[in-house]
Amino acid sequence: MPDLSSFGHDAWWLMLGKSVLIFVFLVLTVLVAILAERKIMARMQYRIGPNRVGWHGALQSLADGVKLALKEGLTPFGVDKVLYLLAPIISVVPAIMAFAVIPMGPEVSVFGHHTPLQLTDLPVGVLYVLAMASIGVYGIVLAGWSSGSTYPLLGGLRSTAQVISYEIAMGLSFAAVFLLSRTMSTSEIVAGQVHHWYVLLVLPSFVIYAISMVGETNRAPFDLPEAEGELVGGFHTEYSSLKFAMFMLAEYINMATVSALATTLFLGGWQAPWPLSIWDGANSGWWPLLWFVGKMWAFLFVFFWLRTTLPRLRYDQFMGLGWKVLIPFALAWVMVVAVIREATRDSSEWTAGVILAAAGLVVAAALLFTIARVVGRRPGPAPDRPDPAAPFDPMAGGFPVPPLPGQVLPDPMLPRSTSKEAPHV
After folding, report:
1. What is the count of structural domains for the chain?
2. Tag placement on the chain: N or C end, fewer CB within 10 Å?
3. Residue 38 falls within a domain, yes or no?
4. How far is CA 329 from each of CA 164, 170, 173, 336, 368, rounded to the nearest angstrom?
């Protein structure tokens, strides 16, 4: 099992090279993800999708990026210019920095130097990722506030509320993994899954994290910063050109980060899946990088699939799901894991794993049933419609109201009821 002594000994040029390669990897992932999302959505919706720029539209994402860069960058009148320009940077930089502790492979040889395929690691590496995600929230709320417009402010408040709410459930889903691995270091968590992936033992934590990471990234069906009643884009409504592109870059990098973190915590990280793990060389050399990228892209595909198939939730459904279902279930599941770990301390690893997996199946089934009940709940009864046969006074509320079908306007020659006088202007 590796430890943190493997880090901090690289030459400066190797650390710089790792940093540049991580940045390039994330930018290329964004370009490919945008194209893949449009292609997958088109395939699922029985249409063609982008097919003009490059071979079968392969350069469409690059063309869109160049188009955004060449657009005129408009700054609306009345904005707080410092915060207005700083908000996209605050959103992008933490999203990139969070990838620094993600293990993408074991130790490899680079020009004769042995180094892990990971920039660095910390004793609290997972908490570092959560900290970076929390800092990114400031970019959202500052973008809405500094725009000096009502609708971006409302979108920023909605987005901030949902990100903070689902960060709580996401953090609680990590606690069960910490109890199993006895560490918060990402590289040691991956090493602890050499015999079995943690998704098999703590399935409820995986379900809670999978839902929370969609809400954390403001993706459909949780893309509530864009409200139908406002017909605007949310907190980045007043942004254009490269500033708008930076928000889109941050969104897709966050998708890649939460997908990579899910791979690290629950799917064995860079370790090869069965039956590829039977091969002795599957978890050595550069091959693990391929397994890691494949698992990460499996989560990204789910993001695209959800956007294509599910409608947007109501805001009360979304917040109720986070506060009334995910957080209580996450707390209860952490207590269950702690009790089982303590009760099976003297048992064999196989016995403890079977008991924990069985309890996870029961709790996961109850969680999914509760989610279906909460999301599928209809809103309250609609207010009673007025009886068309009843007397209708178009000025009863102080303002003229057109009659409903079947309602008859009173005779203008008759005196009108003065129970509700029209307001004087």
Report:
1. 1
2. C
3. no
4. 17, 12, 10, 10, 11
Q: Is there a domain that residue 420 lies in?
A: no
Looking at residue 101, the DSSP 8-state letter turns out to be G
CB distance 253 to 259 below 8 Å? no
Instruction: Answer whether 91's CB lies under 8 Å from 250's CB.
Output: yes
pLDDT higher than 60, residue 420: no
How large is the average pLDDT for residues 326-338?
Answer: 94
DSSP, collapsed to helix, strand or coil, labels residue 116 as strand
Strands, DSSP E only, in 49-183? 107-110, 113-116
At residue 108, φ and ψ (nearest 5 deg) are: -130, 170
Peptide bond preceding 76 in cis form (omega within 30 of 0): no
pLDDT confidence of 423, banded at 50, 70, 90?
very low
Residue 211 CB neighbour total at 10 angstroms? 21
pLDDT digits (tens, 9 = 90+) for 253-309: 999 999 999 999 999 999 998 888 888 888 888 999 999 999 999 999 999 999 999
How far is 11 from 356, CA to CA, in rounded Å? Answer: 43
Say if residue 392 is exposed, middle or buried (CB neighbours under 10 Å; 0-12, 13-18, 19+): middle
Extended strands (E) in 141-201: none
CA angle 54, 57, 61 (to 5 degrees): 95
Task: For residue 274, count CB atoms less than 10 angstroms from its CB and return exposed for 0-12, middle for 13-18, buried for 19 or more.
Answer: exposed
SS3 118: coil
Domain of residue 155, residue span? 71-273+283-375
